[in-house]
């Protein structure tokens, strides 16, 4: 299978190691991975702000870059959900429909498509798992705690195979961190307060790292941690799964 690596713009600009870890991890799992050099933003920031009608250029470029692949894999649940629900190209709607069905968040692809249950690695630290809203409620990567249903978590399932890791049990494991894309800009005070509440839960459990499958949420939490001079660090799940 041919895999197209979709790297969100904020990862490309600020956290390139996450993209590299994703690429290396997929290669280790036997995938033929390609990175289209002309890919740009998927258009999510405009859509979040109510300007989805201005994303036609982003959509057309995305289709042009990823139409040839069997699967598209991305280390970001929110960007994947945006493409799944909003990608359209009037000049090539058939390709758009194919892409919407073949784009996957990284841990979703590993568990659901590759059928990998555990990954070998080594990360001897206590870690708190942040479950981002788009991945949980949109992509169904884990069970919502308000439902009377059997719990599951595709990201945590993969982490359990890593040697030395201790996954903290949080009090409110699927509470929003307050990032919300452009919400953190238009409602800064509320966003920061939500982020501080989320971090407090991790602090009470004595974690060394906060991980997750959306670097955007981790970036928001990282900013608060730095301003608070906290020793807690953030790390994308791809970097843990790619550890040796």
From TrEMBL:
Q: Which residues form the Cysteine-rich domain?
A: 4-83, 127-221
InterPro entries for this protein: Cys_rich_dom
A Pfam entry, by short name: CCG
Q: Which GO terms describe its cellular component?
A: cytosol
- An MF annotation (GO) of this entry: oxidoreductase activity
Q: What is this protein called?
A: (Fe-S)-binding protein
Which source organism?
A: Flavobacterium cellulosilyticum
